[in-house]
Amino acid sequence: MRRRLLIMLLVLLALPWAAADESAEPGVPFENWEVLRLKARKLMVLTGRVEMKLARGAERDVLETETVARAFGGSLADTRTRSVVEHGNGRSLEYTSRSKKRGRNYRFGPESFVVEKLWRDPDVKDASWEVTSSDTYPNPGAAVSSIMVGESAIESPPLYDYYAMILQLGRSELRKVGDEMVFQVATSKGPRAFRVTVGEERDNRRKLINLRTGRKEKLELRELRLRVTPADPEAADEGFMNMEGETELWIEAESGTLLQISGKVENVPGQVHIQLAEIG
After folding, report:
1. Strand pairing partners for 118?
2. More confident residue, 219 or 6
3. What is the pTM of this model?
4. Under a CB-based contact definition with an 8 Å cutoff, are residues 108 and 186 in contact?
5. Burial, 73: exposed, middle or buried (Cβ in 10 Å; 0-12, 13-18, 19+)?
6. Neighbour-count burial of 99, counting CB atoms closer than 10 A to its CB (0-12 exposed, 13-18 middle, 19+ buried)
7. From residue 212, how far is each of 19, 25, 26, 208 by CA, in Å?
8. Are 28 and 219 in contact (CB under 8 A)?
């Protein structure tokens, strides 16, 4: 009897469907990710993390981010954002940003957008947000919609919030070295142009945790390096961990998925690198 059971066990282990089940597990979801988790560490100077969650809809997509960082033992960033964008072209419809005591609301219309700056007392539990200022800025693409080419009107260039622009990189035509695009980005000081240029292409190996399988995977990826340069660095108050001026992004070449962010953070020496650690 024991011999028969041993033979049956060996036969079951050898059946082809056992290997087929393993190969049928989902791969790393670069094309349809829902969660990205990036981490930063700079010796004893800085630690931080960025989590991005994307919910896709038939008409609208919602991107939520959470950024937490500490430098020299003190809080550097603790911010949550929410971007509601038009599905397809990524045009911003709503944007909110919240930190411990400051916040911003952006409301986008066809010809202008409104920026409300908010404040609350961090020492009062469940304190309500107060509007400290409200400014209206023109949409720089609104006038373009009236220009006719033949029998067709030129579609006005979309206006993005900063994180909506990052999301749109994966849907853009940035595919090879030398490709360049200019994005109009809404900031609290008005619309600002951001120039994005593909500066380098490389094959690189990365280790990522696939949240859908729970496994750490070693991947050979084709990556593109993007230079993101605000036309007015001093006026551009957007970005990961409040990075200043030009930032550098590495994206997965086929899907445009964000893999790494590098830039200068105030009062932190050298470049800060935030790298993708988990995807699901």
Report:
1. 103, 131
2. 219
3. 0.83
4. yes
5. exposed
6. middle
7. 19, 9, 7, 12
8. yes
